[in-house]
């Protein structure tokens, strides 16, 4: 069984052209006929962060230390949006292309993977705006800390890939995986330190709190971008979760793959 | 002994009928129900065997036709070969790169240009990007889309899109090529192009599996065939033999339906055709005993319940694929027919029969004296006509004329350049 996976990964690598081309197709098709186009990639997190700022500074003040709330929340909302939107796209990716799956053979995981990569572009754009915002707030991050950024992004991507691929496969058989995932992500949002600071979590349960891999990831983004320091030890937990997610998700997908075309 | 390109061993494919579990709450309640009832009785799930123990070998370089009525399992077999799905039982061995012309334009997106769609489609089919780049110009030329290639696909006509899809798919170097009914779309010149391209691939030694309802196309392209019916292999062998079996099957299905309808009608008309026989000059059944230059008699026996008087007789000869070979009316040839009460017969002698090698049957009509209203109909059994040359029937032609050849030299050729 293990050797079979090696061959499957090799097939996937051989199909990297297809991942690239399919990502391009998804992006072009998405923004071809829309007015805002790629600008939407920035508007979504920006509007969300702006709303949070109004609510959590005026109505329900949240303690964020010396950091202005807008920067505090935007730094977390941008990566969270990447997770939420990617997972939504990925879980729908196979069902949306059932016509293709029943006719041609190609490694099916290309579809959810390309779905995530197409959102990576949005993530990059929003990140640029985040960078501009930080400069405006006079919070330019320090260079040594920035070196950790690709690491955090990589861990987040492997987490998203594992969950997204597995949900994509499950959604073929059980169509309510998609709305269920949406619900889980919504609840997960509140369990992660996006709108509030980690300091608000009582120390007694903080250990359990960081079992949530996104908690570690979000805090790491804040450490790097707002505080200019290396991420805390919670990133190790997230890294472990990312690796497990990727391997388990891929294995689950490959086990179910042979039956996709039989369930229309 | 080298292994074949494709080997199917007792391959079966099962599909579950009925509503499949598509929601988690349903799945949970089903589990709960099964647990609480402690019953081993499965929920009423019936299944359909799309393929039943299909076994065949396909050597390298051969071209196999897959024919059969709709629902026989042809598409399922192709899907198994294309690795889109897996068999429920049995073993499939495939040696070589499989390319499928099953869905032309797979992945085509209307908002992308033709050029972008070529790269997309090629990537889906597994063609390396560099190969697409190298062949790009010949793809556009083959599809006759110069000048249109940078327009969004949604502006293309359906014919243009199909041409583009086929051009991309055929620029690969497949070792095993699967072709489904895609060639049915497109005009005659496009179909010719497709056939030429397929022939070129055959010359290069590509193994081919071809699914089509168009029997003349199948005869032109393939050398062996398999007839699938209700998921099982009903016949296999050379193309003409299998096609004849297929047509017999269709005719049997068709006439079984017609028989019931006709029986009532002819009785009301007062006369019915009892039998149509096709005989040799010595009065024996013609099947297997005649060739193109033999004499054949078609005898129509009828029974009249009352005196009808002047009537017309009409005999048509059909080939097994439904082609009408000839129409003969007694009135055209100045032969009168007068029907009295009781039994009678009329016959037409074809000397020589001049039919090309193949399987035929005769259909006879009795019409009233206006020649418009049919009173009775009957058809004969199939009869085989042997061709003039032993074993050379794989042709489309119907007529084998009585002929004489001459040749002569008209003038001396000029000095050689």
Task: Provide structural commentary.
The complex is a heterodimer of chains A (264) and B (417). Chain A has 264 residues and is mainly alpha-helical. In chain A, 74% of the residues lie in helices and 0% in strands. Chain A is built from twelve helices and no strands. The two termini of chain A are 27 Å apart. Mean pLDDT of chain B is 81; it is low at 260-267. Chain B folds into two domains: 6-18 and 45-245, P-loop containing nucleotide triphosphate hydrolases (Rossmann fold), CATH 3.40.50; 270-386, abc- transporter (atp binding component) like domain (Coagulation Factor XIII, Chain A, domain 1, Distorted Sandwich), CATH 2.70.50.60. Chain B is 27% helix and 31% strand. Classes of the chains: A mainly alpha (264), B alpha/beta (417). Chains A and B meet through helix 2 and helix 5 of A and helix 1 and helix 3 of B.
CATH superfamily of the largest domain in chain B: P-loop containing nucleotide triphosphate hydrolases
Query: Which residues of chain B form runs of ≥5 with pLDDT under 50?
Result: 260-267
> How many discrete domains of chain B?
2
Percentage of residues in helical conformation of chain A: over 70%
How many individual β-strands of chain B?
Answer: 19
What is the structural class of chain A?
mainly alpha
Give unreliable regions of chain A as ranges. none
Name the overall outline of chain B: globular
Determine the fraction of residues in helical runs of chain B and give it as a percent range: 25-40%
Provide the gyration radius of chain A in Å. Answer: 19 Å
Helices and strands of chain A, in order, run as HHHHHHHHHHHH
